[in-house]
Amino acid sequence: MASRSGQAAPKGLFLFVFLLLIVVAPLRGLAAPYAAMVMDARTGEVLHSRNADTPLHPASLTKMMTLYIAFQAVQRGEISLDTEVTISNLAASEPPSKLGLRSGQKIRLRYLLRAAAVKSANDAATAIGEAISGSEDAFATRMNRTAAAMGMTNTNFRNAHGLTQSGHLSTARDMSVLGRHVIYDFPQYYNLFSRRTADAGIANVSHTNSRWLNSYEGGDGIKTGYTNAAGFNLVASAHRGQERVIATVFGGSSTSARNARITELMDMGFDRAPSNVNTRPPQAPAATPTDRPGNNVLVSSGATRGNAGKTIRVSGLVTRSIRPILRPLPQVSPEVAMAAVDTDTIDSLVADAVDAAVAEALGTALAENDVTVDPGSVTQSGSDQQFVAAATAEPEVVTRISTSGGRHWGVNVGRYNSRHEAERVLLRVALNEMSTLDGALRRVVQRSGGFDANFMGLTRDGADLACRRLQARGTTCFMMGSDE
Questions:
Q1: pLDDT of residue 437
Q2: What is the pLDDT of residue 475?
Q3: DSSP string of 53-100?
Q4: I need a surface site. Which of 24, 138, 297, 448 has the fewest CB within 10 A?
Q5: Catalytic residue among 97, 98, 119, 120
Q6: Structure confidence by residue, pLDDT tens digits, 190-202
């Protein structure tokens, strides 16, 4: 018995080692490589990087580019948020995460954007790509063209959703660059990435990373991603005061481990980022001929993977300007008029006219908004009129506001190097937030470090609401004043 017992032990040990080799070893091979980057979003300065240029599987981080191109297409008039998109067999058959779209179903583009941004729905992402470019392959081509224009040198997209596909790769650096473009190029849509829930037309969807957004001070986006090949990925952004940081992680081992690491990287970024720095937004990629509205006519019969369907493409270079042509003054020929006025003067006149139009749209008197009209700048000939609103050399500064009704609060939207820059920001913000800033007075205050851009004369609730809405759009904002 002892002899048999002595022979049984080695056999059991051999069996145990064999199981380790065939089960555990392959699992070790599934561990995704780690990469990270931390960036000062205001300047693009890299604050930390590790394996940041290693091509890896981006997973659903890919949808940042899908959404970026959708915002771009809406802005350029190629498609509208209310366009009814017909769902193809390909889109409906995408694996989870998904919205649950059915082949032949019609749904507005705005709902697809919400589903892709908040729930990370793969069927919605594919439907977006097909709606804009006609097919998955054509949309991937546009994704890569846009990535190249942004300087994403180590990225190659093969689909709109990010599911693992041969050759579909990106890097922590490139995804950080893309996240920065999303923030600065389309601030009007950036709030999508921080919505905890959203109406996606056929269902209400919940955010894939609400746990981190709820736990990290100032966190407001951007995108999660997970596949077996990629691991747990995340591009996150947060702002505190004048600072905004972007942190990217590839290859997390779990959701909790990824969130813990992104928190560490974010804290590192805020420790290293300077408090005051001039924001230098990235240069938005220019439209290429094939991206311009009206340049391509696409008719798709509902592509399926492996069969792109019938696509008719009519393409050609733009043969005339798509911008309105200024009407020349009747007294002189266009050639003489253009020769007599240099481009700087034209830009100045246009900027002043825009300021006056913004003030009128806000329903306030021009004199109360630091803009005056020079009567000599209005000329009339027959039915033709030319109107030029010129800003005064020394804008009126509001020194007192009404103290009735508890409107003792205000909001600050940044400090700028010049009075003119601060005034322009105030005009832009006022136009974007007409509902919450209605009745507020714009005020530029000179400080030792620059010119503060303020809105004054708000209630506490009004100031709080304005700041929350502005921060959701990516605009720095803090409240000022008291209830006393």
A1: 83
A2: 80
A3: TS-B--GGGGHHHHHHHHHHHHHTTSS-TT-EEEPPHHHHTPPSS---
A4: 448
A5: 120
A6: 999 999 999 999 9
Catalytic-labelled residue, pool 60, 135, 176, 300: 60
63 is catalytic: yes
| 311-314 and 384-386 beta bridge pairing | unpaired
Enclosing H/E stretch for 48: strand 45-50
d(CA 31, CA 134): 36
* Active-site residue flag, 60: yes
Query: Token pair for residue 370?
Result: 């630091």
CB atoms within 10 A of CB 324: 6
**Peptide bond connecting 107 to the previous residue in cis, omega within 30 degrees of 0:** no
At 380 the pLDDT is 40
| Whether residue 133 lies in the annotated active site | no
pLDDT at residue 246 in the model: 98
Distances (CA, A) of 109 to 97, 127, 437: 18, 9, 29
Task: Using a cut of 0.85, tell me whether the model's pTM lies above it.
Answer: no
State residue 421's pLDDT score. Answer: 86
Buried b (16+ CB within 10 A) or exposed e, 137-161: ebbbebbbebbebbbbebbebbbbb
Alpha carbon 300 to chain centroid, angstroms: 28
Residue 341 has pLDDT above 80, yes or no: no
Among 63, 98, 119, 223, the active-site one is 63
Other residues' Cβ atoms within 10 Å of the Cβ of residue 299: 11
H/E run at residue 132: helix 122-133
Please give the residue that has the higher pLDDT: either 349 or 171.
Answer: 171
Question: Hey, how many other C-beta atoms are within 10 angstroms of the C-beta on 460?
Answer: 15
DSSP label at 226? E
Backbone angles phi, psi at 77, to 5 degrees: 80, 15
Instruction: Please give the share of the chain, as a percent, with pLDDT higher than 70.
Output: 69
Q: CA torsion sign, 325 to 331 to 337 to 343?
A: negative
Tell me: the pLDDT tens digits for 394-441? Answer: 444 443 344 444 667 888 988 888 898 888 888 888 887 877 787 788
Longest CA pairwise span in the chain (Å)? 120
